[in-house]
Backbone:
């Protein structure tokens, strides 16, 4: 089988997982990598390269880091000089124009963290979890000008378990995505797979997560609160208030999903050895891991020991 020259575009660990696989498969020949510029990270805000850039440099690959690929024609000229047959895009973080897409014999494909046409956009994994989807997956799609609207070449599905959070799903779907590169993409390039048009009537949008969404609304159902907490674990996180002090909530589980008590919403209804039960708009949720203001993350058991908590306490404002 003739090797395929690939231009790879991606930025975070999700993308690095795909690049690792591509580099291990002799069918693919990576001729260059495009990723986001180094960004400030950590408490000291030191400029830090993306996970994809680190991996590319370890393999001595040419790396370009444009601020905006659409506005830097000289970068596109360099990409064209690599003479790639195909562009593979995974969580790159920039919108691509027709000049770029038309630079490759087989165009450009994208691995997207949802079952398209569900959850097009910036945060598909998180929005799917927040929505309480029982099934999710990854899709390999042909890139077109409209965001995440190209024909679907292949999908891989997974049943979502109640305890999975965004961090776990991120890793799970990244691994699933490599199977699309192993099989479906090769079939597409060889002409054995044709992209299937998406059903526009089924489209949902996965907008970017905002810090303003982080505060827990105890009027939600217990499942709604749980889904919010696990969806926001990769950032920006979730928080509530206790005695006018902010408390971050890191881990929860649904104790019951039935029972309304509007007068008790946000109130502690029971204190257990390893959890704190709180009344929601419908049902009761258990808080398992919390983080008081200016302190480290801790188990509910340690939180109970360090806080004068009783069933008169109320979370939220």
Residues:
């Amino acid at each position: 089988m003739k090797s395929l020259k690939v231009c790879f575009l991606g930025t975070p660990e999700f993308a690095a997982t795909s690049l690792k696989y591509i580099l291990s498969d002799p069918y693919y020949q990576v001729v260059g990598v495009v990723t986001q510029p180094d960004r400030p990270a950590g408490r000291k805000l030191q400029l830090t390269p993306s996970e994809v850039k680190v991996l590319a440099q370890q393999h001595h690959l040419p790396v370009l880091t444009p601020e905006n690929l659409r506005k830097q024609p000289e970068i596109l000229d360099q990409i064209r000089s690599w003479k790639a047959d195909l562009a593979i895009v995974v969580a790159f973080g920039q919108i691509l124009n027709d000049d770029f897409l038309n630079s490759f014999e087989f165009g450009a494909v994208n691995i997207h963290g949802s079952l398209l046409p569900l959850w097009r956009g910036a945060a598909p994994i998180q929005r799917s979890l927040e929505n309480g989807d029982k099934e999710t997956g990854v899709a390999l799609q042909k890139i077109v000008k409209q965001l995440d609207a190209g024909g679907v070449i292949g999908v891989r599905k997974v049943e979502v378990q109640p305890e999975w959070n965004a961090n776990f799903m991120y890793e799970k779907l990244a691994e699933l995505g490599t199977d699309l590169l192993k099989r479906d993409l090769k079939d597409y390039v060889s002409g054995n797979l044709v992209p299937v048009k998406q059903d526009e009537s089924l489209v949902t949008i996965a907008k970017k997560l905002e810090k303003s969404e982080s505060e827990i609304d105890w009027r939600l159902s217990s499942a709604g609160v749980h889904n919010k907490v696990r969806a926001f674990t990769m950032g920006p996180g979730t928080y509530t208030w206790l005695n006018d002090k902010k408390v971050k909530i890191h881990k929860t589980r649904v104790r019951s999903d039935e029972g309304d008590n509007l007068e008790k919403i946000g109130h502690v209804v029971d204190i257990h050895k390893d959890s704190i039960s709180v009344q929601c708009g419908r049902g009761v949720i258990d808080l398992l891991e919390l983080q008081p203001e200016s302190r480290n993350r801790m188990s509910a058991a340690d939180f109970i020991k360090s806080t004068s908590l009783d069933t008169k306490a109320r979370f939220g404002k």
Summary: The chain has eight helices and 17 strands. The longest helix spans residues 166-189.
